[in-house]
Amino acid sequence: MTSYQETVSKDELIEELISEKTSINHVEIIENVIDSLEQDDSAMVSHSPEGGYLWKFKYGTVEVFIQLTGSTDEDTITVWAAVLQLPAKDEPKLLRHLLELNCSSTFEARFGIIENKVVVISIRTLAEISPGEVSRLITIVATVADDYDEALQSEFGAA
């Protein structure tokens, strides 16, 4: 029996590996993670004509948002959840507390302010992102926000 071995050039092999790596379906990955975390069938999604997506779902006592701007390496995934409405009581103490938490408790996420709301947020470009990283970003933001929202509202809410 004759055996034929296909010869593939180094460049062809590299191109094949690159195309396999870039064929990650970010939308599918995000929706799978949401399915595992959401509560009460709360997930909603909107899709823009430009190729972006925006999801919202309930996790514990917070609403988590995920924005995917597209599917190229330069596009981003942003995950955020609001934990406290501003203005707040004793804002200098609040801001110091949030900075301390950013250094010790938020992993790849961080506290920030968007439209007069304290949020937990994480932003990452899609370049070389793995399905595990997508899952971790969403899970970390949801968990940190749910862990801190009630305590922050209790101590600093409604100035």
Question: How would you describe this structure to a colleague?
Answer:
The protein has 159 residues and is α+β, with helices and mostly antiparallel strands. It has four helices and six strands, in the order H-H-E-E-E-E-H-E-E-H. It has a six-stranded antiparallel β-sheet with strand order 1-2-3-4-6-5. A hairpin with a 7-residue loop joins strand 3 and strand 4. Helix 2 crosses helix 4. The model has no long low-confidence stretch (mean pLDDT 88). InterPro entries: Put_sensory_transdc_reg_YbjN.
Strand content: 25-35%
Give the C-alpha Rg. 20 Å
Q: Largest sheet, if any? A: 6 strands, antiparallel
Number of helices: 4
Series of H and E elements: HHEEEEHEEH
Give the tags.
159 residues, alpha+beta, 6-stranded antiparallel beta sheet, YbjN domain-containing protein, Put_sensory_transdc_reg_YbjN
List the SSEs and their pairings.
Elements: H1 10-21, H2 26-37, E1 44-47, E2 53-59, E3 62-68, E4 76-85, H3 91-104, E5 110-114, E6 117-125, H4 131-156
Antiparallel strand pairs: 1-2, 2-3, 3-4, 4-6, 5-6
Short overview:
The chain is an alpha+beta fold and 159 residues long.
